[in-house]
Amino acid sequence: MHRTQIYFEDDLISEIKKAAQQTNLSMSAYIRNVLKKELAKKQAAEQQVDLSAFTGIWQDRDIDQEQLRAKAWK
Known about the structure:
Low-confidence stretches: none
Number of helices: 3
Oligomer: single chain
Radius of gyration: 25 Å
């Protein structure tokens, strides 16, 4: 683990202290937890695949579910 210093505005540090007390954590532990959650959300959002470019690629084809089943079970 590394030690660092971060400057917070007075109102933000008050909110952090309150939230840390409500969760029975030290301020450092609370800040670490919040940062881990936010970074995990960001990573998950980056991993999502945008499939919007594929929308409608089969719209000009005459394929229905019964045809697909018939071909699949041959």
